[in-house]
Design goal:
The chain is mainly alpha-helical. It has six helices and no strands. α1 runs antiparallel to α2, α2 runs antiparallel to α3 and α2 crosses α4.
Length: 134
C-alpha cells in the first residue's frame, strides 16, 4: 500500500517544483547506483528522492512508495524511523573505508581531516541510534 503523500499545492506554473524534481531524480539515480555498488548507500538517497518528489511530482512520489523494493524501506522510515541492520553496516563500512582512503592517500591538512572525521562520526552515531526493527 502506497504512503499517502502530503497535500502540497501543485500548479503547472510553479517554478519551485523544478529544483525539487531535479534533485529528486538525481537522488533516485544515486540510490539506483547504490543498489548495484555496495559502497554507496541506497536508503538515504531514496529518502531524499521521496522528500523531493512529495514537493514536485505526486506521480513519482506514489511510484516510489509503491515500488516492491524501495517502498517497504521508505514506509519503515516514515512510520518508525527504522534503518535496517544491513543498511547500518553498509553505511558505517562505507564511511570508514572512505575516511581511511582519505587519511592514507590524500594529503589533506589536519584540520580538514579532523573535520571530516567528526562529521562522519556524527553521521554514524545518528545512524546507529535509530532502531533496526519495528
Amino acid at each position: 500500500m502506497a504512503q499517502p503523500r502530503r497535500q502540497i499545492a501543485h500548479t503547472a506554473k510553479n517554478i519551485h517544483r523544478w529544483p525539487f524534481l531535479l534533485l529528486g531524480l538525481a537522488a533516485l539515480a544515486a540510490g539506483l547506483v547504490g543498489v548495484v555498488l555496495p559502497l554507496i548507500p541506497t536508503t538515504p538517497f531514496l529518502i531524499v528522492a521521496a522528500w523531493c518528489f512529495a514537493r514536485s511530482s505526486p506521480r513519482l512520489h506514489d511510484w516510489l512508495y509503491g515500488h516492491r523494493l524501495f517502498g517497504p524501506m521508505l514506509l519503515d522510515w516514515d512510520t518508525n524511523r527504522v534503518i535496517p541492520i544491513w543498511a547500518k553496516v553498509c553505511a558505517c563500512t562505507a564511511m570508514a573505508a572512505s575516511f581511511t582512503y582519505v587519511a592514507l592517500y590524500r594529503d589533506l591538512p589536519l584540520w580538514l581531516l579532523s573535520a571530516t572525521g567528526v562529521c562522519l562520526i556524527g553521521v554514524a552515531v545518528y545512524i546507529l541510534s535509530k532502531p533496526s526493527r519495528t
